[in-house]
Description:
The protein is an alpha+beta fold. The protein has helices at about 1-5, 15-20, 65, 95-105, 125-130, 180-185, and strands at about 25, 50-55, 60, 70-80, 85-95, 110-115, 120-125, 135-140, 145, 155, 170-175. It is globular, with a radius of gyration of 17 Å.
Amino acid sequence: MVFRSLGLKRPKVAPELAERTPPGQYLTERWPVLHYGSIPSFNPATWDFRVFGLVDRPLRFTWDEFIALPRTTVHADMHCVTRWSKLDNDWEGVSARHIMELAGVQPDAKFVLFHSDGGYTANIPMEAFDDEDVLFAVKHNGEELTPEHGYPLRSVIPKRYAWKSAKWIRGVEFMREDRLGFWEKYGYNNNADPWQEERFAE
């Protein structure tokens, strides 16, 4: 069972929270750690973040340059494909729309691919990326991200299952055609909408 493997209890869902809990999900106040591979090291002197593909202005930020960008905050729930949901997360970081504006994303860009340390990738359609609650987060609930949760930078896509919110992100690529990410290649659903229970490919 998922709850035994993650050490979670089956909490009772208050009526006012039930409408915020997608089908098949259970609430937890913990933040379970789930990822593939080892946690990468972070060196601010060599770290960079690239924006490339179908853009007018390819970008490359050093760590100092990235953390100097304007910040935004997002209050959002988080839903994992392993069936836990953590409500009321406060994220702080750089909005996806600001990155798009800086880079000048071209009209024929229809898909986005996140590139992370360790070769991990995650893909989403442009309409999911171009949303007011999507950002590149450096903080969670007022604190810097911890290494196991993606420090120094992770994407946050609240309307998709959490595997789309790539940890240890180093770049974002804008594409004309879709390209499957790491977990999608292993049979996870390409769209990953929690409210439709899009967990696995048909």
